[in-house]
Amino acid sequence: MFLRDGPRTVHALRARARRADRVLAAALRECGADAGIAAVTRGLSHSGEHAALWLAAGLTGAATDPARRSRWLRGTALVALAHLTAMGVKRAVRRPRPGLPGPPPLVGTVGRHSFPSCHATSAAAAAVAFGALPPAGRWAPPLAAAVCVSRLVAGVHYPSDVAAGAALGALTARLGGRGARPAAREGPPGLPTAASARSAHPPGGHRHG
């Protein structure tokens, strides 16, 4: 029975998911009717175009935090990689942008295709890649979430576009960051770090008084 009705069941589930996606997209788009919310939405969407916000944040961190420069640069590279990957997937899937009833979208779009959201991909990648780097750990995750929501309020993505993009970005940053070695913790000036203490007294060595 299940095998016979399986394709029909899958088709019905897909239809329900598409309807739910569209209903939720329309509901979130209505939030943009508020002038203040619309202004914030436009600002977030424009700043996240081509991952510009996150690339600028990563390069700024690398320039101002010499002790963690390599980690900032690695995170910036992962954000760029995630964004490019999302662009490739988008061109392969070619899902059209939402055609929602009511007012037009709050922002223009670079392309016609919707899945996955490149904004969400780069935002999630930045939240993961920069989240462990102070002070970015305090602002990167909430700002990334705000950028993701802005694409829904702007009316240019379905929720599934944003969810898929966020998952792709987080996965890319997680996998790409596995090979990174955390920088040694630095102590106050004039005091040896744990790494320098180990090199000065290797295991099995002898101390001379």
Give your account of this protein's structure.
The chain has helices at residues 2-30, 35-47, 52-64, 69-93, 118-130, 136-153, 159-176, 194-200. With 209 residues, the protein is an all-alpha fold. It has a single domain (8-178), classed as Vanadium-containing Chloroperoxidase, domain 2 (Orthogonal Bundle). Helix 3 packs antiparallel against helix 4 and helix 5 (118-130) runs antiparallel to helix 6. It is globular. The termini are far apart.
For the largest beta-sheet, the strand count, sense and barrel status come to: none
Structural class: mainly alpha
CATH class: Mainly Alpha
CATH topology: Vanadium-containing Chloroperoxidase, domain 2
Q: How much strand content do the residues show?
A: under 5%
Order of helices and strands: HHHHHHHH
Considering DSSP H and I runs of 4 or more, what fraction of the residues is helical? Answer: 55-70%
CATH arch. level architecture: Orthogonal Bundle
Number of helices: 8
- Quaternary organization: single chain
Structural domains: how many: 1
- Number of E strands: 0
Taking all Cα atoms into account, the compactness measure Rg is: 23 Å
**What is the average of the pLDDT values?**
86
Spatial gap, N to C terminus: 84 Å
Subcellular location: Cell membrane
Main location: membrane
Biased composition (Low complexity): 179-188
Membrane topology: Multi-pass membrane protein
Give structural attributes.
single chain; 209 residues; PAP2/HPO; hydrolase; transmembrane; cell membrane; membrane
